[in-house]
Amino acid sequence: TPAFHALGERWQHGHVEVYQERHGVEITRRVLLRLKESLVPSEPDAPSAIDATLSGDPYSLPGLMGELVLLELGWQAEFLGSQLPHTTLERAVQDLKPNVLWLSVSSVGDPQAFIEANARLYALCLEHQCALVIGGCALTDELRPRIKYASFGDSLEHLGAFAQGLSVYTRHNR
Prior knowledge:
The protein has helices at about 1-10, 20-40, 60-70, 85-95, 110-125, 155-170; strands spanning about 50-55, 75-85, 100-105, 130-135, 150-155. By secondary structure, it is α/β, with parallel strands linked by helices. The chain is globular and about 50 Å long. The chain starts with a helix and ends with a helix.
C-alpha cells in the first residue's frame, strides 16, 4: 500500500507517466496471481467468500489481496472483479451462497448511489445469512456512519481477523 501511495503521488506531480503506474499495477497483479497458485487448496467444507468492487471503483489489487488473505486462512475465496454493478453482486450472493461478501472500497464516485447499493446488498446478505464485510480507503468518517455492514476494517489484517473469528464460530456451531 505505501508503495502504491508513493507511486500515485509521483504520478500526480508528473514524475511518473500513466503507463509506468499501470505497468506497476500489472506486475503486482501477476505476482499476486502467482502467490495464489502456491497456496494449498481449501477444504470442500471450508467457509466461502466472494469479493469485488462496486461500479465506479476500478482498483483490483485490494480485492486480489483480500482473496489471498482468505485463501491463506483456508477459506474458499474468489475475487469476482472490479466495477461490478450492485445488481450482479446481488445475483452472485443468491447463486453462490457465500458466508461472506467482502467489498473493497477504494473509490466512491457517487456517495448516494453507493449508500443505496450498500443498503440493498446488506439486506440481501441478511436474508441469505451472508456477512457483508467492507474495507477500503474511500470509506471516510463522513461516509461510514451512513452505511451498513457486519464488519468494517481499515486493513486486510482486520479482514483476516474477522474471517478467523467467523471460522471458529462456524466450526463450533456445526
